[in-house]
Amino acid sequence: MAQPLRGGQAAHDWAALATDRIVGTIDSVREKTTDKVQLAARALVYGVVAAVLGLAALVLAVTLAFRLAYVYVGNAPWIRSRPGRSVWLIDLVVGVFLCLAGLALQRKGRRTSSR
Fold first, then answer.
1. 20 CB-side CA count, 13 A
2. Whole-structure pTM over 0.70, yes or no?
3. Whole-number Å distance between alpha carbons of 48 and 38
4. Contacts of 85 (CB under 8 A, 6+ apart)
């Protein structure tokens, strides 16, 4: 009869015990290293894909907004008689808005750097 070991297992099960211990150690190391690296890599890839898709959607939305603005402003009664005026008018409004936003950001940047 075999000698009992810890947990009531027989002495001839030492191979199974060693295998279980090795497998458990390898699983523990994998959980601490590889799983976290894979999670980080997936997050990075999905983040890049989301950023590219978001940028493409933003470009399409801005293009659509400009096209709609050209059409609706071009149909205004005071512009309808002068073709091509809606384009420069929309560009002027957007240009003024972007210049004012740039000036505001520039002033804010100066304020924080000259404490």
1. 5
2. no
3. 15
4. 74, 79
